[in-house]
Amino acid sequence: xxxxxxxxxxxxxxxxxxxxxxxxxxxxxISEESVGEVKVVVSPPYVVLPQVISELWDxxxxxxxxxxxxxxxxxxxxxxxxxxxxxxxxxxxxxLGHSERREYFGETNEIIAAxxxxxxxxxxxxxxxxxxxxxxxxxxxxxxxxxxxIVEGLFHLDNDAFSMVVIAYEPVWAIGTGETASxxxxxxxxxxxxxxxxxxxxxxxxxxxxxxxxxSCKPGNAQELFANPDVDGGLIGGASLKADDFVAIIEALKNx
Length: 256
Ligand code: PGA
Hints:
By secondary structure, the protein is an alpha/beta fold. Helices cover 45% and strands 14% of the residues. The structure holds 2-phosphoglycolic acid. 2-phosphoglycolic acid is lined by residues 9, 170, 175-176, 214-217, 235-239.
């Protein structure tokens, strides 16, 4: 059975002090009892990762992801952080191909594919983001866009490597805008993604792949989004910055 996952993408928010407060609040409230089968992930900025990892050392229910990594192991890439470095601080996962990375930092499917390889080589779970922009939603090309992102970003992987990957569908028009995909739109795309994965890797692997929804997911709409059979949790931006909201979203998934 595939994992149910709530991952909090903090983006460029929280100083060290603020991050420690948030993670301590979360850690107090997240236990085996409170989250059940739900896997919880937090993804703070690089600079606070070691601190957050050490705060969560005794809480095996919360994993820690970086928000990006470089595709090379080391070298003259000023300002970058490699997957190997993330492994050295015992990070568990890394978000790759987020639409903000694609849009503001010019990440192509090819670059993201190389980052996926680097992550897997260093035992980091890639949380692979895909999603269309508003224009592509409106002109009807959204299925093709998402399919190409997945094919070009992930389909070079063999079965074992692909089985490590978590996919996050994040319609760009819904990220940080307050506008959410309707439960029907989310289910339709998630089922489509599972179909694309089935064609390449077969039914069993597709059924075991977690596909998360992201884009203005919050306590008020999480339950109806998660109720869909192919929505296996959420990648949460804004609502992951407050413990109350994040915990409420985890609870919504627990009740799925
Ligand atoms: P949002 O961000 O929840 O603030 O819309 C989601 C994301 O970008 O991962």
